[in-house]
Task: inverse folding
């Protein structure tokens, strides 16, 4: 899948909202890249990406913009910020407090921001559904009070129904595109 244009509907609703987009595993990386490039082109607000599915360095090679800051949960480097002040490393996906601190490092209180979680599914592997629910409840309330927009990506195959249902409660819009693409292997059976 080279293009993820089916996301345009979901991306058009993010302003001031918490939007959840559910995908299948094959759609995840191309969809995140498409979403980042689209948002960088269409929006003036700064973007904070919480990257759990790919290293911050690799994301910056694909999508480089002065508007983009990254909280890197994927690399599992020692917690801290890089010398260019573009990537905040979090050493463990179960450390939700460090993720929140990373977001705060890049947050500009006087500006509205777009905060993107590229894979809440990965966070749900390392945290209980209750902890994920508490985290997103507090996080989404705080972000909405500040006027920020939130875009969450999840892969249907790797997140528990309990965690997904809990997160849906805090979202204004939910789009499930996970059934859009049927692989040739499934068609052959």
Result:
């Amino acid at each position: 899948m080279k293009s993820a244009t089916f996301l345009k509907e979901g991306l058009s609703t993010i302003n001031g909202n918490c939007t959840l987009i559910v995908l299948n595993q094959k759609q995840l990386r191309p969809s995140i890249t498409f979403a980042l490039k689209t948002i960088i082109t269409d929006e003036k607000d700064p973007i904070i990406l919480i990257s759990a599915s790919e290293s911050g360095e690799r994301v910056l090679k694909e999508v480089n913009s002065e508007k983009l800051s990254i909280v890197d949960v994927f690399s599992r480097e020692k917690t801290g910020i890089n010398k260019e002040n573009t990537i905040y490393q979090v050493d463990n996906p179960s450390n939700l407090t460090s993720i929140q601190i990373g977001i705060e490092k890049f947050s500009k209180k006087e500006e509205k921001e777009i905060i993107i979680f590229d894979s809440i599914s990965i966070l749900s592997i390392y945290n209980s559904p209750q902890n994920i629910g508490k985290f997103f409840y507090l996080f989404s309330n705080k972000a909405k009070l500040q006027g920020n927009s939130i875009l969450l990506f999840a892969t249907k195959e790797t997140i528990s129904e309990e965690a997904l249902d809990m997160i849906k409660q805090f979202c204004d819009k939910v789009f499930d595109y996970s059934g859009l693409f049927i692989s040739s292997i499934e068609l052959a059976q």
Q: What stands out?
A: The radius of gyration is 16 Å. Confidence is low (pLDDT under 50) at residues 182-189. Helices lie at 8-11, 25-42, 56-62, 96-106, 120-126, 129-145, 161-168, 184-188. Residues 25-42 form the longest helix (18 residues).
